[in-house]
Amino acid sequence: MSAVRRIEGALARAGIDQRPVAVLDLDAFDANAEDLATRAGATREQGLPIRMASKSLRVRGLLERVLERPGFAGVLAYTLREAMWLSSCGIEDLVVAYPTADREAIASLARDDRARSHITLMVDETAQLDLILDATRGLIGPGRPVRTACC
Q1: How many CB atoms are closer than 10 A to CB 86?
Q2: Which residues contact 95 (CB under 8 A, 6 or more apart)?
Q3: Which residues pair with 96 in a beta bridge?
Q4: CB-based contacts of 72: which residues, under 8 Å, 6+ apart?
Q5: Distance between CA atoms of residues 27 and 71, nearest Å
Q6: Rounded to 5 degrees, what are φ and ψ at 97?
Q7: Which of left, alpha, beta for 138 (phi over 0: left; psi -120 to 50: alpha)?
Q8: 126 vs 41: CA distance, rounded Å
């Protein structure tokens, strides 16, 4: 019996009939994460943790699973809107991988104290800082800035 037929049978027995559906070998996932952390030296006391890229791992539950492991810390989010969603789900260390010009999302970040304390925006030119200042004008008080990092 082919692997596809075995999986289809297991899904049918579990009453899962909607598609698409993902099937994952969690033992292999965990072994790969362990191997990656070991090869990167991330599990050593002086090693740097691995920041997971959400564009490479698109399942929130798997992001949460890997972040529970030694050697992993934080998420490199694909967009600010995704980072806001991940923050609302409890992930606390988020860097937005690419500079954003999404004024509405920047304004939402400015209004959300919790998200603002967990999300860092990437910028690569001073015009983006001006855009962030403009999008957040009047929304946050002194001493509560939007965090930025230069790439």
Answers
A1: 22
A2: 51, 74, 75, 76, 77, 83, 119, 120, 122, 149
A3: 77, 121
A4: 33, 37, 42, 49, 50, 51, 52, 66
A5: 18
A6: -65, -35
A7: left
A8: 35
Do the beta carbons of residue 83 and residue 96 sit within 8 Å? yes
Q: Which residues pair with 121 in a beta bridge?
A: 96, 148
Whole-angstrom Cα Rg for the chain: 19
pTM to 2 decimal places: 0.86
* CB-CB contact of 96 with 79 (8 Å): yes
Query: Which parts of the chain fold into alpha helices (H)?
Result: 3-13, 26-40, 60-67, 80-88, 103-111, 113-118, 126-136
Find the helix or strand (DSSP H, E) in which 38 lies.
helix 26-40
Rounded distance between C-alpha atoms, residue 68 and residue 88, angstroms: 18
Number of neighbouring beta carbons within 10 Å of residue 8: 15
Task: Give the DSSP H/E element, type plus range, for residue 51.
Answer: strand 50-53
pLDDT digits (tens, 9 = 90+) for 12-25: 999 999 989 888 99
| Sheet strands (E) in 59-103 | 72-77, 94-96
pLDDT tens digit sequence for 111-132: 999 999 999 999 999 999 999 9
- The pair of structure tokens assigned to 54 is 């959400």
